[in-house]
Amino acid sequence: MTTSTSESSQSLPIVPTWRQHLGSLDSPYVVPVFITMVLVVGQLSFGFLESASRTFLAIAVAIGVELVLGRLMLGKWPHPASAYVSGISVGILVRSPAFWPFALCAAISIFSKYVLRYRGRHLWNPSNFGISALLFLGGEMVGSLSIQWGNHVWAMLVIWVLGAFIIWRLRRFHITATYVIAFICYAGLRSWYTGATFESEISPVTGPMYQLFIFFMITDPKTTVKTRRGQCMVAFAVATMEAVLRLAQVVYAPYYALFFVGPTALLLESWWAARIELRAGSKAPAGSQARVAT
């Protein structure tokens, strides 16, 4: 009796405490804590938020819509970490004197996770979809954060070092690195083609908008392809399309580039996986197919 009890207790999974979960870089709290640090540093140093109340509204709407849709459509209460990141991204990046764009953008972002799906996956990074849609449809009343930190070196270095370390530990640094390297190369080409200085072409990547973009949007695990090579190829494709859009004087080029390239890559990956499954099924022996059917 004692032996069986001890054996059964040893076989039980060890559930980490909340403190252990919080301290692990694989926990769902890492990205929310990091983006909160970006917000706090930026707001205390430069006051880059439109207003704290608008940011809180975006966060509340994002979490509220996430909880309601998760319960209604999936039958469970989803973890609010992802919605918090989407809401705080909207609060940081959206610019408008009104309150409704923040609430609407946050709601659209979360709705896209549950409505625009294919083979069980949502296709767009939520905040990228919401911000892109809002900028395209309501560009006269809505803008986006640009270079408003003044590109102070110390603030930029803090975010870059911390963000690079976290993304590296999460095994997604290759995505960020590929995009940044491609951006720098294209900045040099644009400088040569347009006659602008290289510093002016490369300066956007040092601002807060791009820091959020390269650390949170293009590295989103839920909306990136599965293979490492594929992730690097998609990051390069995003940088390429952004370079083309910049030459066409598109103001919000990075948002739109990811908006089009990211879902296209996911659809191609899903189509290729379905094709491989179909081939594997057609090559199975007839006897094994009959056994499976029975």
Total domain count: 1
Tell me the distance between the termini. Answer: 43 Å
Mean pLDDT: 82
Count of alpha and pi helical runs: 14
Strand content: under 5%
N to C succession of SSEs: HHHHHEHEEHEHHHHHHH
**Assembly annotation:** single chain
- The total beta strand count reads 4
Proportion of residues in helical segments: over 70%
Walk across the major sheet and give the strand order: 1-4
- Biggest β-sheet strands, sense, barrel: 2 strands, antiparallel
Low-confidence stretches: 1-16, 18-23, 289-294
Cα-atom Rg, whole angstroms?
A: 22 Å
Shape: globular
- Helix/strand-derived category reads mainly alpha
Briefly characterize the structure.
This protein has 294 residues and is mainly α.
Helix and strand arrangement:
Layout: H1 2-11, H2 18-23, H3 30-46, H4 52-74, H5 81-93, E1 94-95, H6 100-115, E2 117-118, E3 121-122, H7 126-137, E4 143-144, H8 153-169, H9 173-194, H10 198-202, H11 208-217, H12 228-247, H13 253-283, H14 286-293
Antiparallel strand pairs: 1-4, 2-3
Helix pairs in contact: 3-5, 3-8, 4-5, 4-6, 5-6, 5-7, 6-7, 7-13, 9-12, 12-13
Give an account of the 3D structure:
The chain has 294 residues and is mainly α. The protein has one domain. 71% of the residues lie in helices and 3% in strands. It is built from 14 helices and 4 strands. It has helices at 2-11, 18-23, 30-46, 52-74, 81-93, 100-115, 126-137, 153-169, 173-194, 198-202, 208-217, 228-247, 253-283, 286-293, and strands at residues 94-95, 117-118, 121-122, 143-144. Strand 2 and strand 3 form a beta hairpin. The longest helix is centred in the C-terminal third of the chain and has 31 residues, at 253-283. It is globular. The two termini are 43 Å apart. Mean pLDDT is 82; it is low at 1-16, 18-23 and 289-294.
